[in-house]
Amino acid sequence: MGLSAVRTGRVCDEIVTQFEQLIESGEWPLGSKIPPEPELVAALGVGRNSVREAVRALEHAGLLEPRRGDGTYVRATNGLRAAILRRARRSAALDVLAVRTSLERDAAAVAALRRTDADLAAIQAAADARRASCDGGDRAAFVSADLAFHFAVIAATGNPVLIDLYAGLTEALQRTVAEIAELDHDRAAIPGHDELAAAIAASDPAAARAAADSYLAAARRLVEGSR
């Protein structure tokens, strides 16, 4: 899609609209660094102040994130995800687990009904990686593997709204999983993950929901026991 010269009277609004379109379309992907200011000025045919004003507006909205001495990065792909990010980063572990319970129980059942062969392969690979990470001492690797498994299950629902909502919880999920991993020295002891993968493979929504209940309840007990 790219940028085009701005010709309207409301210069900043037009720039903001173009930037939002680039972010939502994926041309500026989540986590990517946007072009430097001189390049944006040249492409849009506007002054530096207009570009700066538009960038600041999207920073305040939570879509862009400035990094001192490095540039500006895409932090969220839409306003909803940005709002979830702002709230989730201040949420306690039990609050995050309550939201996960609401989302993941039904998502597990839906994934069991809608999963494709590609989804199943991704879930199984993520489950294998998670299991392998349980035996290592690298907690960051475990957190990454655990999140990859749950994201694979959510993706298997094929519901873009749910996928976007869940992605907005990424920071809170990372923090919560890390906290649980710190409390649980035997990471393999939390049941339900392999069972969930098996239930989805068997297209069994009831078993998938029960497996999600199992690991979420175990996580809640760990967090409550630490209070």
From TrEMBL:
Keywords: DNA-binding, Transcription, Transcription regulation. CDD domains: WHTH_GntR (cd07377). InterPro entries: GntR_C (IPR011711), TF_FadR/GntR_C (IPR008920), Tscrpt_reg_HTH_GntR (IPR000524), WH-like_DNA-bd_sf (IPR036388), WH_DNA-bd_sf (IPR036390). Pfam families: FCD, GntR. Residues 9-77 form the HTH gntR-type domain. Gene3D superfamilies: GntR ligand-binding domain-like (1.20.120.530), Winged helix-like DNA-binding domain superfamily/Winged helix DNA-binding domain (1.10.10.10). This is FCD domain-containing protein. The lineage of its organism: Bacteria, Bacillati, Actinomycetota, Actinomycetes, Pseudonocardiales.
